[in-house]
């Protein structure tokens, strides 16, 4: 029986890129953001590595614990960017005629690299928490599970993009599942796009409320930070609009929104949340 040939240097580099490329790019961007914020705040660099590691885990929807408070609802835009990056990297490492042996190695690399970086990040956070008592280590099992889930989704998308038809032929699947999947994806994207248009229109209607939310800071850097935060959380708000469009409900802070009722509560002071309906008896600035 013929044994698979050893990977050549080009294949080894491709596997390393698949394993660490998307995560390394994310780390560079996160490190730049953290350093800029520390310089602007005129703060020392104590705990910089812990902050970078926490934010990297946060891009995989791992809850972040700071000062005894847990940030459960994290922005979806970095997570979506990570999934897209993994899918693109995996797809670029494959060809329609790539052997199943190489495909298995590419998938294994796409999952093993991030898991190794998760272990390193947890160790860094644990070490930083001895200096910064406000920073707590996240649950290790949940951290590994979230990172594995995000990168598995990206890897599956990348593989299906390249060799989806081959997989269907091997499994002897009819053609309609692939056609149905494409139709479903198109429908979801259309719903997301229309919900985004509704969200943008609601922001225009509630422009005065958004201006009040920006008034919590008067300097340019603070308003720029609020704008970036609003952009990061925009997919979360649009998904809430999608939920309302299909008859479900959305929860923001302690407030609940549905197509038929709005129950007031405290909302975070994020400009993008000016798009949500005003609860009864709610104050515009603290909705």
UniProtKB/TrEMBL annotation:
| Coiled coil feature spans | none
Q: Which Pfam families match?
A: DUF6350
Q: Which UniProt keywords apply?
A: Membrane, Transmembrane, Transmembrane helix
Locate the transmembrane regions by residue number: 12-40, 60-84, 105-125, 140-163, 184-208, 220-245, 257-276
Name of the protein: Putative membrane protein
- What is the species of this protein? Mycobacteroides abscessus MAB_030201_1075
């Amino acid at each position: 029986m013929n044994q698979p040939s050893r990977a050549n240097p080009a294949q080894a580099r491709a596997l390393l890129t698949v394993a660490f490329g998307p995560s390394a790019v994310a780390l560079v961007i996160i490190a730049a953001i953290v350093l800029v914020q520390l310089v602007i705040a005129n703060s020392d660099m104590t705990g910089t590595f812990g902050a970078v590691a926490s934010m990297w885990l946060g891009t995989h929807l791992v809850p972040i614990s700071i000062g005894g408070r847990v940030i459960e609802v994290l922005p979806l835009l970095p997570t979506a960017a990570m999934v897209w990056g993994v899918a693109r990297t995996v797809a670029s490492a494959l060809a329609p005629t790539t052997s199943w042996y190489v495909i298995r190695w590419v998938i294994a690399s796409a999952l093993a690299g991030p898991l190794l970086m998760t272990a390193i990040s947890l160790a860094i956070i644990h070490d930083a928490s001895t200096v910064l008592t406000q920073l707590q280590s996240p649950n290790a099992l949940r951290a590994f599970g979230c990172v594995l889930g995000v990168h598995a989704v990206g890897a599956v998308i990348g593989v299906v993009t390249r060799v989806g038809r081959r997989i269907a032929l091997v499994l002897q699947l009819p053609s309609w599942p692939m056609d149905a999947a494409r139709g479903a994806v198109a429908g979801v994207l259309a719903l997301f796009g229309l919900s985004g248009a509704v969200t943008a229109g609601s922001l225009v209607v509630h422009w005065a409320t958004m201006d009040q939310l920006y008034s919590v800071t008067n300097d340019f850097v603070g308003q720029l930070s609020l704008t970036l935060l609003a952009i990061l959380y925009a997919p979360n708000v649009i998904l809430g609009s999608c939920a309302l469009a299909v008859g479900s409900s959305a929860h923001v802070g302690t407030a609940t929104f549905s197509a038929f009722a709005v129950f007031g509560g405290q909302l975070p002071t994020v400009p993008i949340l000016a798009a949500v309906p005003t609860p009864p008896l709610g104050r515009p600035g603290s909705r």
